[in-house]
């Protein structure tokens, strides 16, 4: 059993923010906030797994009221160093279960975080919980990577996803359970023998786009848009990730 509270602990929260670079780059956040602001349609947003406020804070600054749900106490504590509860209210708990209202026009789940739920049942409940937060016609936006199983060499269960100075990312797959473990190896360039390396591991349950769409239908959503990125570029067979926008129709599957 994975203890997510231990996984996203104080150390993970302290190293999560990378101001101005990576996923905190203006080139990333600018288009993200622009799209989400438009999809909110003038109403409030709820962010599932709000983390340290990477998206929520600039979205609030763009004029969209934001509330959040976050499992990690450490992530919430770091968020609170940047913005108070009066500006971005956050409830601690599981995003597949916790409810904080039903008046939102937009629900947000970005940066692959739905994959942190390690069973299909939990992921379906997450969609159902998002639907419960939204007004009729509200939207649920999910950002997620496309499983790279085509990259697996025959007879091998892993791929090197990133190799750069000071950082190595290796993904290992359990294709029967649709599980992937990301192994993050960070090391200092000043030590050649690698004895200063730090290894962190994060488990995920990967989801094919078609499976994600079925989860949405079960919860009463229909797919409105799917883009390859926040710049609204076309999603193709070669896309490595997608931004999917679901609109609540309340035609739940029975």
From TrEMBL:
A GO molecular-function annotation: methyltransferase activity
Keyword Methyltransferase recorded: yes
Biological processes annotated in GO: methylation
Superkingdom of source: Bacteria
Domain Methyltransferase stretches: 46-138
Alphabetic keyword roster: Methyltransferase, Transferase
Protein name listed in UniProt: SAM-dependent methyltransferase
UniProt keyword annotation of Methyltransferase present: yes
SUPFAM superfamilies found in the cross-reference section: S-adenosyl-L-methionine-dependent methyltransferases (SSF53335)
CDD domains (UniProt xref): AdoMet_MTases
């Amino acid at each position: 059993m994975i203890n997510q509270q231990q996984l996203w602990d104080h150390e993970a929260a302290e190293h999560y923010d990378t101001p101005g670079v990576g996923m905190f780059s203006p080139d990333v956040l600018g288009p993200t906030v622009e799209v989400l602001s438009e999809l909110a349609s003038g109403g409030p947003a709820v962010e599932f797994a709000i983390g340290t406020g990477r998206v929520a804070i600039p979205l609030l600054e763009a004029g969209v009221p934001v509330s959040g749900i976050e499992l990690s106490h450490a992530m919430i504590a770091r968020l609170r160093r940047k913005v108070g509860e009066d500006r971005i209210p956050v409830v601690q708990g599981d995003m597949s279960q916790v409810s904080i209202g039903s008046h939102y026009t937009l629900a947000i789940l970005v940066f692959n975080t739905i994959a942190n739920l390690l069973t299909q049942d939990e992921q379906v409940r997450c969609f159902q919980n998002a639907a419960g937060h939204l007004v009729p016609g509200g939207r649920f936006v999910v950002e997620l990577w496309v499983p790279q199983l085509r990259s697996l060499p025959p007879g091998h269960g892993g791929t090197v996803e990133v190799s750069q100075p000071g950082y190595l990312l290796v993904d290992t797959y359990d294709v029967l359970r649709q599980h992937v473990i990301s192994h993050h190896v960070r090391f200092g360039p000043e030590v050649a023998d690698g004895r200063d390396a730090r290894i962190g591991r994060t488990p995920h349950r990967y989801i094919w786009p078609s499976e994600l769409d079925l989860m949405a239908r079960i919860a009463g959503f229909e797919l409105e848009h799917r883009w390859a990125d926040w710049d609204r570029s076309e999603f193709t067979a070669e896309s490595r990730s997608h931004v999917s926008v679901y609109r609540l129709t309340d035609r739940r599957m029975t």
